[in-house]
Design a protein that fits this description.
single chain, alpha/beta, 13-stranded mixed beta sheet, 8 helices
């Protein structure tokens, strides 16, 4: 235990020193935090008033005016459902064009085998570039025992390769708890996990804090930082040492551009073993 503690302390100091020297990769991301109730109106995502600060689009536009260096906008999973969600996602290409940034957005799609929840990547001038279908569904809640499932799972490990060369591992809700998904994403060259969650079904229960703790574990396990966008949860990011850089109040709309650092040095032996 003493050896592990000393080794871990040395590793943390080495990582911080590498960041101060400018080693590794730095990307500026805008993870959005919302406070939408169940069955929210899709206009709470796409409404665009000049002086607005409530919808996801209004928050994003305001934050980008304050931090024009931001490269990536991430909206959270939301309780918007059905046609309202489809209508919001149909506006995704136009929203990405208006923001002038790549946008990751929670969407849904229909397949012959059933509906799928997705993370959709929209890019300025290119429209809908790629989609990842949620590969790990919540037991009992999304996969009932006595009924036919409404949702079907996609394949784990999809990676979004941005023009800058950055490779994102999109993670929707329960996928943060899936070793198969995160491991496959890492094996496909993923450099940073982008987590999109909604905690509306749990009302005001602080389950988002438990999920945040799981994010800290996953960041260390896979030696990848996590960009975290949330509805009724805390947004921000978690570094590869498991340290939180998130908002304090999970129940208010918020959007802040934040620098995400990815180390170039290898992770700890534990990270390699745990991620196997």
């Amino acid at each position: 235990l003493a050896l592990v503690a000393v080794s871990g302390h040395w590793h943390m100091q080495a990582m911080d020193a590498a960041r101060e020297r400018g080693e590794g990769t730095l990307v500026s991301a805008l993870p959005v935090q919302l406070d939408l109730p169940a069955f929210a109106d899709g206009r709470l995502l796409t409404r665009d008033r000049a002086d607005g600060r409530r919808s996801a689009l209004e928050l994003s536009r305001h934050a980008l005016r304050q931090s024009p260096q931001c490269e990536l906008v991430v909206w959270p999973e939301t309780p918007v459902m059905g046609d309202a969600l489809r209508d919001a996602c149909a506006r995704g290409p136009a929203i990405a064009d208006s923001l002038g940034r790549d946008l990751l957005m929670h969407c849904a799609r229909d397949r012959p085998e059933g509906a799928q929840l997705t993370v959709q990547w929209f890019a300025p001038g290119r429209g809908a570039v790629q989609a990842h279908a949620k590969s790990s569904l919540v037991p009992l809640y999304e996969t009932p025992l006595l009924q036919s499932p409404v949702l079907t799972a996609g394949l784990p490990g999809e990676v979004f390769a941005l023009p800058s060369g950055l490779k994102l591992v999109p993670s929707l809700c329960y996928e943060l708890h899936s070793h198969d998904h995160l491991r496959a994403g890492r094996d496909h060259g993923g450099q940073v996990i982008v987590q999109m969650s909604s905690f509306t079904p749990f009302a005001r229960h602080p389950i988002d804090r438990l999920d945040l703790g799981m994010g800290q574990i996953r960041a260390v396990e896979f030696a990848m930082p996590i960009i975290r966008a949330a509805n009724r949860g805390t947004a921000g990011w978690i570094d590869v040492l498991g340290r939180r850089h998130v908002t304090d109040d999970p129940h208010r709309p918020n959007a802040d551009c934040t620098p995400i650092w990815m180390p170039s040095r290898p992770g700890t032996p534990y990270a390699h073993i745990a991620g196997m």
